[in-house]
Amino acid sequence: MKLLVRNLSRKMTEHEIRVLFSEHGDVTVCNLVLDQETGLSKGFAFVEMPNTTEAKAAISALDQADVQKSKIRVKLAKS
């Protein structure tokens, strides 16, 4: 399942996001979206988890969670 993670701290790294979601299952892809001009985070990312049960567990556990002083939002990404 492909998940959309929004409202991330601008200082959070792709590795930190991967570690956060790996606590709930296998993560195959993690893409932090960066501004092309500045190279800085835009505050959202896409995470792919192959196991549906693990992905749903990650959504339940992490949606509205406080991570690095930001209340993140996690939902299923639209195709």
UniProtKB/TrEMBL annotation:
| Ranges for domain RRM | 1-79
Q: Which residues form a coiled coil?
A: none
Looking at the keywords, is Glycoprotein present? no
Q: Which GO terms describe its molecular function?
A: mRNA binding
Q: Which SUPFAM superfamilies match?
A: RNA-binding domain, RBD (SSF54928)
For this UniProt record, give its keywords in alphabetical order, as a comma-separated list.
RNA-binding
Q: Which SMART domains match?
A: RRM (SM00360)
Protein name, per record: RRM domain-containing protein
Source species: Vibrio inusitatus NBRC 102082
**Record lineage:** Bacteria, Pseudomonadati, Pseudomonadota, Gammaproteobacteria, Vibrionales
